[in-house]
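Worked example

This section walks through a single chain of length 170. The input is the sequence exactly as stored; nothing has been trimmed or padded.
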Amino acid sequence: MTNHKTLKRDLYKKGFKFRFLGKSGIKELATLLEKNEVVHHCIYGYYAGGSAVLAATNNRLLLIDKRVMFSNMEDMRYQSIHKIRFYKGMLGATLVIKTKSNRVMFRSYSDAKLSELSKFIKQLTLVEKSNEDSSTDELQLIEFEPTSRGKLLPRRKIGKMVYNIVSATE
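Given that input, the structure is written out below as tokens.
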């Protein structure tokens, strides 16, 4: 358990700034950290339950949703992560993490930091899998970027075709 002010200062030095959104999540994160645990990445975003802070430490991945009356917390060990998918969109990015028991979709507007976080999770998960040596499945990090759908037909041609079909039937 660490002091939330020292944790906030350490995160600020690493480039993770929480001025308004995510402050309560950082306070909760400080109480959840174990003795020799270090936070390497921390980002504010949204998941199915609402807004949350996603923190990657050297031992586990924590999703913390602190509300006024209650808090939700998901603790995912790197050994239990099977698949990581990173989707990059125009206004933000989505990180999908699949474990044996659940699937977490985390969205954030800071896509560069979320991309770094996904690469960090992949790296630690592969290290844990290689130390374990019991799994034959290889972890996949799949990045998707939006592509164009091709050339669309002009509106006039579609209108004339409809008109010709209607006039031919009359």
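What to look for: The longest strand covers residues 39-47.
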